[in-house]
Specification:
The structure is a homodimer.
Chain A lengths: L1 E4 L5 E4 L4 H5 L1 H6 L3 E5 L3 H6 L3 E5 L5 E7 L3 H20 L13 H28 L4 E5 L6 H8 L4 E6 L6 H4 L4 H12 L3 E4 L2 H15 L7 E3 L6 H8 L2 H13 L3 E8 L6 H14 L7 E8 L6 H21 L7 E5 L3 H10 L2 E4 L9 H8 L5 E5 L5 H4 L4 E3 L4 H13 L2 H17 L2 H18 L3
Parallel strand pairs in A: 3-5, 6-7, 7-8, 8-9, 10-11, 10-13, 11-12, 13-14, 14-15
Antiparallel strand pairs in A: 1-2, 4-5
Helix pairs in contact in A: 4-5, 5-6, 6-8, 8-9, 11-14, 12-13, 12-17, 14-15, 15-18
Chain lengths: ~450, ~450
């Protein structure tokens, strides 16, 4: 939720569209919730401090408390430390011979930005806990690693939980952060009563790194709770007029076989190798020229970060190179569309024969759950072994190593060759799994684990 | 040892100068040894097959068996798989959003190159074991991961040991290799009776990844044996006329305080960040302009690999940038010398006030042991926490995180400010440690561990 003033000076509200906002909706619907968030706009800042009454999309009431940060501190927090530094550590994206270069500016951004903004959040949480001392506090993701410890120091009896949406690296990769930084992160997180992860793989990595940096006797309480989809909302969306209109557009142009990928233009998504894999496939299958296409719907992401701007340039260059190599008549192999058009993405979900999810590392990857849910062509999912979704869906997907371009080309071929009955069986199995483990499940798993932990903690 | 023909057609022999050849000398001196190595030159190839009698530098006799490989197979083995692929995996040097791209050429190089050359070595070992069935076989490093298993299959009772000179990455980084590659590597290594590592950190990482890829019930026998220096030979070398002449050259030009680094131009050595750290130091200490210098003696390395050629270009560019920024009269802060001049390196070892070893990852780093041994200025070692030598020398060094440029600048300052008595105490402690744990120790630790393991293995 972000606020502005319109031309007449009336306050307007815009709901955030991020996956997290959507995923947390069931929590808001069924509990008495105060959402604590950063004040972004000037109007946000004017409201900061007191809690505001709001209504969720489904009409459930909640309170919103906006935290104002000093502008420079917030930019350092967000643009220097959280993205790219921590995001790149979580997804193993650094080019270690050259990057990162942790200079005095990083030191300052850590102390005056990340630590400062975390302190601001902690103060807001502490103020809420004074009003509602029995409330459970839920921290989310890599932006708020220091806040839990600050809250714990003031409120030793508070119930604190943190959910980590991103992959957790193994201790040697955490070594990219200087000792004081990696220690502060692990000390901050372990101040929670419970820490949630998308998969057991990320959970085990966390326990391993916590012991490495804090000592072998550290025993953090953890839970695996894979994030998922609001399936009924999603199926409804797939029938909406906006999606149907976009789908007609795709159907009118689609080749016989359609490979789809839907991603942010993030270096972790492995878009360039995906194009190269498709190139290798076409090299080996000239009979598929003009009969197959890859539709890449890419949402431009964080273009103010140089690594992201560069990555988008390479994406465009590689798509052009592959298209120039194989172009034939009006046909080109890759249809690259860089914009933010969610209805079109859902339409593409319905139309894929193969969905390519080859992420370098990914906490979960919701595309791998959303797209099969609404697909209408018995489409096959080609899925990276480094995506969190792989832990749940591997049995019904074609697995790929994200660095093995030849392997990805072979996987595309395998997926396209699977008999119709087998394709249907796999798609229905994924669908069934996602319906049985939807986003409500994600919340319930966390709440149940928190109950178990709270029962064990003497207050 | 490599052979050629001189102008008169007489066979000439050139001893390899690598660290491994030197380090293994004590083994050769005290045991009945057959050295099995690749035939590199045409003359080598003409000798391949039968063992040749040779004398070590100290007069100890040994036999040499050269293994001829098909030229293309050898180039694939060496230039595609071993360097760069495996070297880059071992040292975490890949830029994962872009590299590696494992294409069909890599698949072929793995099968027809790496596996083929390993099979050639295994056949040579098996032939030797037919003559001397009680001999112990010592495999070295990342070039020969597949050979032990091939030998084991033919010679189930053979005594096989492997020493891994490089850092062992944690399992998630091994994920850069496709499943069949990482499995073959771990299966090959665990066919040995004993596997040696430089530090407990690399050893634990290996046990962890072996269990991850081969199953929790895998229990490889391992030993930690840090490689070291032939101290008496090294001290003698330091007094040699060649080194004294080089030292006079350095002394005649040296500034008041001298920072020295001696490295191959390998991306793992972190040379660029070292220059930037020195830049930050000068920025904060203008009073040291014209009074301090960094002497960077860099041995050009693997220039046929594009990443290495690019790294050397960046090294040269960064040195020039820092020099242009601070140049004053005839003085410039960085004296960059790119050549292969070992006597000059030893002379620089004697002359440093600060030795900078800031490697990104390094199995051991022998410079950190060699240089203090002969230093004559109570010089201080600034040492990366990711160098194997850190496990032994941390108490007497100034530790740095290799990615923390500001931290490295602070470490240079700290090292330069240490009181003379403290500098002497630290240097003498390192010297004592290296003398007590010299290269003979390295061999003895392995042989003793092998005896213990052999006693436990029923034949």
């Amino acid at each position: 939720m972000s606020y502005a003033r319109d031309a007449d000076g009336v306050r307007t509200a815009k709901r955030g569209g991020g996956g997290l906002v959507t995923a947390l909706r069931p929590l808001v619907s069924h509990h008495d919730v105060t959402w604590i968030a950063s004040a972004i706009s000037d109007e946000d800042r004017s409201l900061a401090g007191a809690a505001v009454d709001e209504l969720g999309r489904d009409g459930a009431p909640y309170r919103l408390r906006l935290v104002a940060h000093e502008e420079h501190a917030y930019r350092s927090f967000y643009d220097v430390v959280a993205n790219p530094m921590l995001w790149f550590v979580h997804h193993s994206l650094w080019n270690l011979p050259y990057t990162p270069n942790l200079d005095r500016a990083f030191d300052a951004a850590w102390t005056d930005g990340y630590a400062e903004v975390n302190a601001g959040f902690a103060a807001a949480v502490i103020a809420e806990l004074e009003v509602a001392p029995d409330a459970a506090v839920f921290f989310h993701d890599y932006h708020l690693y220091l806040a839990p410890r600050l809250v714990r120091e003031q409120c030793p009896d508070a119930t604190l939980m943190h959910f980590v949406h991103v992959p957790w690296p193994q201790p040697d990769y955490w070594g990219v952060c200087p000792e004081r930084v990696r220690r502060a992160i692990h000390e901050g997180l372990t101040a929670n009563d419970l820490i949630g992860f998308q998969t057991d793989r990320w959970r085990r990595n966390f326990v391993y790194s916590a012991r490495e940096f804090l000592g072998e006797d550290v025993t953090p309480k953890t839970v695996v709770a894979p994030i998922s989809v609001d399936t009924s909302e999603f199926e409804e969306l797939a029938r909406s007029e906006q999606v149907l209109a976009a789908e007609r557009g795709i159907v009118s142009h689609r080749p016989d076989k359609l490979i789809v990928r839907v991603d942010r233009t993030d270096p972790s998504k492995n878009i360039v190798r995906g194009f190269r894999a498709f190139e290798l496939y076409l090299e080996a299958h000239p009979e598929m020229i003009e009969r197959i296409g890859m539709l890449a719907l890419l949402n431009p992401s964080r273009q103010e970060v140089p690594e992201y701007a560069e990555y988008l340039r390479v994406i465009e260059r590689e798509a052009k190179r592959v298209n120039d190599r194989f172009r034939e008549g009006g046909w080109a192999p890759i249809d690259l569309q860089v914009d933010d058009d969610f209805p079109k993405s859902v339409a593409a979900y319905k139309q894929f024969d193969v969905l390519l999810v080859n992420a370098i590392f990914d906490g979960m990857n919701l595309v791998a759950k959303e797209a099969p849910l609404v697909n209408e062509r018995n489409g096959v999912v080609v899925l990276s072994e480094n995506a969190g979704a792989h832990a749940e869906l591997a049995d019904w997907a074609v697995s790929v190593n994200p660095f093995d371009v030849a392997g990805q080309a072979a996987a595309l071929e395998e997926a396209l060759k699977l008999p119709e009955a087998e394709r249907r069986r796999r798609l229905e199995s994924i669908r069934e799994h996602v319906r049985e483990h939807d986003v409500g499940d994600w919340i319930e798993l966390q709440l149940a684990a928190l109950d178990r932990v709270a029962a064990r903690v003497p207050r």
